[in-house]
Design brief:
The complex is a heterodimer of chains A (about 110) and B (about 120).
Chain A lengths: L3 E4 L2 E4 L5 E7 L8 E6 L6 E5 L3 E2 L7 E6 L2 E6 L9 E6 L6 E2 L3 E5 L1
Parallel strand pairs in A: 2-11
Antiparallel strand pairs in A: 1-3, 3-8, 4-5, 4-9, 5-6, 7-8, 9-10, 9-11
Chain B lengths: L2 E5 L2 E3 L5 E8 L8 E6 L5 E7 L6 E3 L7 E6 L4 E6 L8 E9 L1 E5 L3 E5 L2
Parallel strand pairs in B: 2-11
Antiparallel strand pairs in B: 1-3, 3-8, 4-5, 4-9, 5-6, 7-8, 9-10, 9-11
The chains are: A mainly beta (about 110), B mainly beta (about 120).
C-alpha cells in the first residue's frame, strides 16, 4: 500500500498570502495519478486537482498542482477567505487507493 | 446534475449490522465504478471499498475485509454497503463517491455510530 504523508499538518497564513502544501508518497505514484481535495467543516470533500496538475471543472486558477514520482505540491497563489479548509491528497494509481492525513489551512 | 444521496446510517451496537444505500442520479450510473469512503470523528478520509461498473469486481480495505460487502443495483441506480460485525472503530461518516480515476463527485455522507 502506498502511504501518503502530507506536510505541514497545520498551516497558518493570512488572506492574500501564498500557500504551499506538500504530499510525499512512500513509493512512486503511477502516471502521476494524484488528486487533491478540499474539505470544509460539515461538507463533503471537493475535487480540486487530478492527474497531479489538472484543475477540476470550476476550480479557480489560483489553485495549481505540480510534482511527479513521490513528491507533489498544491499551491494556492493568493489566499481568499473561502480557501481556509482541510486539504487531502489521494493516489489512485495503485490499489488500494490511499489518502494523506490532511493539511489544515487556518487563518493567521 | 450529478447527485449521490446516502441513507441507512444510525446507531448500532457493537457486533451489529447495518446496510447503507446510495441513490445516484444525473448520470449513467451503470457506466461508473463507485466507492465508499469513510471519515471518523475529527479524522481524515479513509478509502473503504470499490466496485466496478457491472458489479463483478470488488475490493476492500484490510480493516473491513470479511465484514463489509459492497454491491450495486444498476436497474435502481443504487449502491450499497452491507456492514456486519460492526466495531466501535467503524464509527464514521460514510461517503458514497463516483470514480473517474480520481473521485469527482461525493455524496453528503451518512453517519454510522457503533456504541452500546
Amino acid at each position: 500500500e502506498i502511504v501518503l504523508t502530507q506536510s505541514p499538518g497545520t498551516l497558518s497564513l493570512s488572506p492574500g498570502e501564498r500557500a504551499t502544501l506538500s504530499c510525499r508518497a512512500s513509493q512512486s505514484v503511477s502516471s502521476s495519478y494524484l488528486a487533491w481535495y478540499q474539505q470544509k467543516p460539515g461538507q463533503a470533500p471537493r475535487l480540486l486537482i487530478y492527474g497531479a496538475s489538472s484543475r477540476a471543472t470550476g476550480i479557480p486558477d489560483r489553485f495549481s498542482g505540480s510534482g511527479s514520482g513521490t513528491d507533489f505540491t498544491l499551491t494556492i497563489s493568493r489566499l481568499e477567505p473561502e480557501d481556509f479548509a482541510v486539504y487531502y491528497c489521494q493516489q489512485y494509481g495503485n490499489s488500494p487507493r490511499s489518502f494523506g492525513q490532511g493539511t489544515k489551512l487556518e487563518i493567521k | 446534475e450529478v447527485q449521490l444521496v446516502e441513507s441507512g446510517g444510525g446507531l448500532v451496537q457493537p457486533g451489529g449490522s447495518l446496510r447503507l444505500s446510495c441513490a445516484a442520479s444525473g448520470f449513467t450510473f451503470s457506466s461508473y465504478w463507485m466507492h465508499w469512503v469513510r471519515q471518523g470523528p475529527g479524522k481524515g478520509l479513509v478509502w473503504v471499498s470499490r466496485i466496478n461498473s457491472d458489479g463483478s469486481r470488488t475490493s476492500y480495505a484490510d480493516s473491513v475485509k470479511g465484514r463489509f460487502t459492497i454491491s450495486r443495483d444498476n436497474a435502481k441506480n443504487t449502491l450499497y454497503l452491507q456492514m456486519n460485525s460492526l466495531r466501535a472503530e467503524d464509527t464514521a461518516v460514510y461517503y458514497c463517491a463516483r470514480d473517474y480515476g480520481d473521485i469527482d463527485y461525493w455524496g453528503q455522507g451518512t453517519l454510522v455510530t457503533v456504541s452500546s
